[in-house]
Amino acid sequence: MHFDSVLAIGLSDLDLADLGLKPSEIGITDDDVEALVAERMAARTDKDFAKSDELRDRLAAVGVTVEDHPSGESTWRWSR
Predict the structure, then answer these.
(1) What was the pLDDT predicted at 34?
(2) Are 66 and 37 in contact (CB under 8 A)?
(3) CA 47 → CA 43, 60, 80, distances in Å?
(4) What is the dihedral of CA 74, 32, 61, 68, to 10 degrees?
(5) DSSP letter assigned to residue 22
(6) What percent of the residues of the chain are helix, what percent strand, and what percent coil, each to the nearest 5?
(7) Domain count, the chain
(8) Which residue from 68, 55, 48, 1 is spatially nearest to 9, judged by alpha carbons?
C-alpha cells in the first residue's frame, strides 16, 4: 500500500469489514449484479428470452443465482 506509506492514514490496518466490502474472489459488485438483473428483467418484459437466458448464464458464471417468482419479480443471491 504505497499510498498508506506516503499519507500515513492507516489503510493497511483496515480489513474488508471496515471498508464495507464483501470478501470475494469474484470481480463483480452487488451494483453490477443489480444492473444485470434489471437488464434481464427488461429482456423478459420484451419477450427476448434468448437475451434473458444469456444474462442468467452470465450471472450464474460469476456465482449469482437468479430466482423468478410468480409475481413476475426476480430476486438474486450469491450462490458461492
Answers:
(1) 96
(2) yes
(3) 6, 20, 29
(4) 0
(5) P
(6) 50, 10, 35
(7) 1
(8) 1
Structural domain for 52, as ranges:
2-78
Residues 24-76 have pLDDT tens digits of: 577 888 899 999 999 999 999 999 999 999 999 999 988 888 999 999 899 99
pTM of the full structure: 0.67
CA 5 to chain centre: 32
Angle at 60 between CA 69 and CA 19, to 5 degrees: 95
Q: Which of 24, 31, 21, 28 shows the shortest CA–CA distance to 58?
A: 28
What confidence score (pLDDT) does residue 23 get? 40
At position 42, the amino acid (one-letter code) is: A
